[in-house]
Amino acid sequence: MDFNQSTEDNLFDHARVIGKPHARIDGLLKVTGRAPYAYERHDVAANQLVGYPVCATIARGKITHMDASAARAAPGVAAVITTLELEPLARADSNVAHLFGGATVEHYHQAIAVVVADTLEQARGAASLIEVRYEEAKGVFDLEDAWTRLQSTGEPVANVGDVDAAFAAAPVTLDETYRTASQSHAMMEPHASIVDWSDGGQMTVWTSNQMIQWTRQALATTFDIDAGRIRLESPYVGGGFGGKLWLRADAVLAAFGSRETGRPVKVALPRPMIFNNATHRSGTIQRLRIAAGSDGKITAFEHAAVSHTLLGGSGEDAVNQTRCFYAGENRRVAHHPIDMGLPESADMRAPGEASGLAVLEIAMDEMAEKLGMDPVAFRILNDTQVNPEEPSKPFTERHFVECLRKGADNFGWAERNLKPGGRREGQWLIGHGMAGAYRGAPTMTSGARVRLQNGRLIVETDMTDIGTGSYTILTQTAAETMGMEMQDVEVRLGNSAYPTSSGSGGQFGATSATAGVYAACVALQQQIAKRLNVDEARFEKGRVVAGQTDMALADIADGEEIVAEDSINFGDFKDELEIGTFGAHFVEVAVNAYTGETRVRRMLAVCDAGRILNPITARSQVIGGMTMGVGAALTEGMSVDTERGFFVNHDLAGYEVAVHADIPEQEVIFLDTTDAASSPLKAKGVGELGICGVAAAIGNAIYNATGIRIREYPMTLDRMIDQLPSTER
Amino acid sequence: MKAFSYERVSDPAQAAARAAEVPVAKFIAGGTNLLDLMKHEIEIPKHLIDVGGTGLDEITPTDEGGLRIGALVSNAALSADTRVRKDYAVLSRALVSGASGQLRNKATTGGNLLQRTRCGYFYDTGMPCNKRSPGAGCAALSKGAATRQLGIIGTSDACIATHPSDMAVALCVLDAEVETVTSTGEIRRLTLDEFYQLPGDTPEVETALQAGEMITAVLLPPPVEGRHAYYKVRDRASYAFALVSVALIQAPDGTGRVALGGVAPKPWRRDDADAALPQGASAVMARLLDGARPTQENAYKLTLAERTLAALLAQE
Ligand SMILES: Cc1cc2nc3c(=O)[nH]c(=O)nc-3n(C[C@H](O)[C@H](O)[C@H](O)COP(=O)(O)OP(=O)(O)OC[C@H]3O[C@@H](n4cnc5c(N)ncnc54)[C@H](O)[C@@H]3O)c2cc1C
Ligand code: SF4
Fold it and tell me: Which of A46, A272, A506, B106 has its CA 20 to 30 A from that of A394?
């Protein structure tokens, strides 16, 4: 099905199932421990062995020597494969670091061997017996140095109008530098795979991955085999947040282990290795300048940022949203990805925007204060309905102002603390803050197959459910389109034997995959109509109605299966439009006047994200994003050892994600909007919108509570303790 | 983790004798710290002596009017004991601020005292660490190191790690003593100050325990009247080790005692600092943190310690 123009009024505008609150259908399996995750799939292949990775303990250099003889002789060990025995593996497009093979070490905890044994304990015990000698090379690990060197150089990605003149002429300007920390996805389920490549022929991979086809292709490239020989299954994923978009070392090591031993091998990355072995969100340093007239209208933006990446990667592009979020005729934005020796940085939930809005939305708050304006009013004044760089490009649906207004009303913004540091309850300073949220709404080609069997519908697509609710919304989509009940639809996901979908990432999954399932259902309807010899048929209450015919779906094929397959292809008419999702976050914090501990007391998000397919799963996505935003604001930061070149706090004791006690009452309001240019369902994503701007809202609330402006994340107490009020009474 | 042998003993003296006799033996109680360290091969005992069956899991009154806490009493049971909650509230408060409910159910009094540091470099066997491998050097003291969580006082040029226990800080302010049995069956009593050793040139030596010596109990002196408070400051609201913690017992006349956690290789307390309590937080800290040697990243702990005590004093 081609989606070449905005959709008209259609069945989803009169929906019965879509848009209604349905609890997630895989919930029972999950809470009863029966949803099979990759590492626990003991049943799928007999005689599994366990592999344990060995990782490099230098950041840069060469391995000069490895002795695995003691490990090979250890009890239960079936095989040891060291990186020196192999040529460097071919690198798939999606990967920046080499995953295995060869003597070169590109980053700390790069995989350099795998030990395969009967049990985890045996493999782990033998792993430490491998002797490794290195020749260390000098590396660059300090982003501050790079920033000092590079700021104000390089090609801007956008340079519109006359920025310098606008700043020179503006009565009110801001020029500040901000820092965001490197972050780990820290999803609950580690990277894990079971691989059966016993005979070196067919390779079967049970894994935890967001993108089935990308990863199958990456495996084909890495092992130089035909993708047709590879089957991938990933029906349940215990969180990904972008960390599982790619092929990682778990599957590669398991594949080698399996080929060597002739048995299926499973490998999970131990948590302390994930932070440096796998990918992360790069830290950034960002300089933001804003110019405005005394009426509060923004005349210019300048935004420059650096982030780190291994050679060939793209880093964390924190400037992107500054190109089109607010009005203003002049703007210059530039991002420098710096080649550094730290582990591979790559996408993490709202890549770019999460870090960019964390900064832009503080700068907006600072600017509003300079102008003596309410930060909500300042944003309303600077709303734009067109891309300010290309005013001929309109936003399709942009209800940012409504998000701001509704948020302010529901939060009680009018009763907020007005004087920074001015409201106190006992030992706690109380403050309020807000921020805008913006994230694109991309869509990707997505396919599905549907099988009608005796009145039951089976949907097959390689789409993944990474805890997001894909099973549920795809069931709703099929039930809606086919006029069936949800219980008569069974959705099967995450298998390379199924048609290729968008996969889960970039908040394109829900929009694209539901449209793909819709396309397949329409193809099925056409087949049925043809079979019944009618031009058009209606599908309702489990029946097909056309002219004189009124038949139960169960009866149309005499027990025979009817199969249809299609995919949705989004046309390039979208290139002429700006399609985005918008939101506003409001928070209340308490900051301890003595210690600087910050506790979030209340959070509200208002989201404009097109048709909400299922308010329960959508809300889960948004509050999950808000929770991650609390972590980003207050605790999450990987500490860099700038000489040894690695992230030191590489476990969940040292890297602090928010715990229950950190999360207060969270409220989410969805605007009742649709976006006909986005997809047949008029939906857009919410999974990444939820995190955008949250950290800044908290930072602004801390300022409002204390009068202390922190421009570096995470906003831990040591960054403000010297400026807190005197403790003398 | 390396293979090890395992036995259960029922008598503390026998446990101590066995521990001295079998090479590279260790006691295991709740296992919440030791097993993690074994998995990482930071500790590699060849033999484990399970002391869970030694019957030391009771809290009993002493003749002096205090309490005797068996070494195997769980952190959960200790924090919930009504006598502890009433007369030694600082101890209850410190305990419940630590770890999580599940961990406190398993963690024991003896094991808590002997938990190892949470220095990130200590946990990474790819890094040099004097505490883990004597003489290897200290990664945390090298240029570029991440030291925000580490110690500011009582540290040495060999090691700047802290002792992470909350319970021990409360025991210190309570003047508790550790009771042990040695491998020859001798009973010893050590104050917490005698029990914990400063790192000096030998950060691998953390306590005064001799080979095989087992902790049998912690002895609490008669209750100390006054307000009992424990303030643990951390980045997130729960389930994190202290950046700084303050244990305070203060009499109505303003006199009292103060101990600090999160700043030193052992709970940190000084008599002259206690004596300064009526003069306020800054007078106490001027003495208690005299001689501190913070890094650039953890110098905030000096201010934080003082302000945390000030917060407690302002609460009344
Ligand atoms: C995730 C996590 C978070 C935590 N957070 C905190 C926190 O916030 N605050 C805090 O204070 N603690 C915290 N802890 C540490 C916890 O308190 C300790 O792990 C626990 O108290 C150890 O007790 P155990 O009985 O399990 O000791 P084990 O692990 O069994 O033993 C620890 C050590 O003590 C020795 N040992 C045990 N019993 C005896 C004995 N009777 N005589 C001589 N030696 C003995 C063992 O040989 C071993 O060396 C945390 C732990 C974890 C895993
Ligand atoms: S501070 Fe102590 S524990 Fe940490 S690395 Fe140095 S020697 Fe080891």
Answer: A506
